[in-house]
């Protein structure tokens, strides 16, 4: 991951805008993925924390999906 750019090209794009140079340091970057951290720690969500993107409880949705559907009698 980098946050560097070609300052001269950038300046020219904006009509020769003046630039300043601020010295800095580079630091190593490490990526951590949530799935890996959860697996390493053994963390499990409690049932009351299992909410999907729309705010619906997953347990309720699952139970509703598993319920047998009532068939209408067509006489």
Write structural notes for this entry.
The longest helix has 9 residues, at 58-66. The chain is mainly α. The chain has helices at residues 7-13, 34-41, 58-66.
Which runs of at least 5 residues are low in confidence (pLDDT < 50)?
none
Number of strands: 0
| Computed structural class | mainly alpha
C-alpha geometry? elongated
Q: Report the total helices.
A: 3
Percent of residues in beta strands: under 5%
Question: Main β-sheet: number of strands, strand sense, barrel status?
Answer: none
From N to C, what is the helix and strand string? Answer: HHH
Radius of gyration: 27 Å
Query: Quick check: average pLDDT?
Result: 75
Measured distance between first and last alpha carbons: 68 Å
State the share of residues found in helices, binned by percent.
25-40%
Please specify the SSE layout and strand pairing.
Layout lengths: L6 H7 L20 H8 L16 H9 L9
Note the main attributes of this structure.
3 helices, mainly alpha, single chain, 75 residues
